[in-house]
Amino acid sequence: MLSPAEQRVMKTFRMFYMQTGEMLCFNGVDLVTKTPALDSLVHKKYLTREKFAGAFSLTRAGYSEMRDSGPSE
Questions:
Q1: In sequence order, what are the beta bridge partners of 25?
Q2: Which 8-state DSSP code applies to residue 34?
Q3: How many Å apart are CA 12 and CA 15, to the nearest integer?
Q4: Fewest CB atoms less than 10 Å from the CB: which of 40, 43, 46, 73?
């Protein structure tokens, strides 16, 4: 079960039609406000932190969770 903040992060990945292994960059206020949820999703192995600052990619489990957590708006 994902927290509301984690669900918002997954919604961002859905909004950009991200696939497994594709990098999505967060920056500025968006990165600051989503950092706890991003860290939690990395810990749950749904996201991988990339070398580029603020960049994350979906794991296979994360992609599945993103798809199952609802449609984008």
A1: 55
A2: H
A3: 5
A4: 73
Residue 23 belongs to domain with CATH number: 1.10.10.10
Q: CB count, 10 Å around CB of 5?
A: 15
Q: Which residues pair with 49 in a beta bridge?
A: 56
Residue 49 resides in a domain: yes
CA dihedral 19, 11, 66, 18 (to 10 degrees): 0
Q: Give strand ranges (E) for 9-54.
A: 23-25, 47-49
Structural domain contains residue 32: yes
pTM of the model: 0.91
Confidence of residue 68 (pLDDT cuts 50, 70, 90): confident
Say how many residues make up the chain: 73
Number of structural domains, the chain?
Answer: 1
